[in-house]
Amino acid sequence: xxxxxxxxxxxxxxxxxxxxxxxxxxxxxxxxxxxxxxxxxxxxxxxxxxxxxxxxxxxxxxxxxxxxxxxxxxxxxxxxxxxxxxxxxxxxxxxxxxxxxxxxxxxxxxxxxxxxxxxxxxxxxxxxxxxxxxxxxxxxxxxxxxxxxxxxxxxxxxxxx
Length: 161
Fold this sequence. Notes:
CATH architecture: 3-Layer(aba) Sandwich
Shape: globular
CATH class: Alpha Beta
Strand order of the largest sheet: 3-2-1-4-5
CATH topology: Rossmann fold
Helix content: 40-55%
Radius of gyration: 15 Å
Strand content: 15-25%
CATH superfamily: HUPs
């Protein structure tokens, strides 16, 4: 059985993230969506909130599960979960250099875990969690950017602030 890790902070999950997860689920037997902690970022949603949203958004994908990782190396998490692959989405230009560099580092750390890059679809090529958070904070339109449950949670989060 081929298992892949789809890592990210998913703060919040966007339709672009979900497109990559769905495409990975068609390619691999099991996909683990791994919510990672980035020490350089202060998340809007805590890990439990992000887990709940991702589970709700992927409930129709029987071969997808959601997990979170303690701070540490992604390849160690992948090895612990029995994964053979890491799947990352690439938006034009802005992601390539960083993701390529991380893929090379991961290969150096564990060459038994392959990194696969899936190009974002055109309609998601500009989309990021940062843009979604900013739009939500200013009351902007979110349809077609995030699933309805994520839009609802964003609206609640900013109404509470």
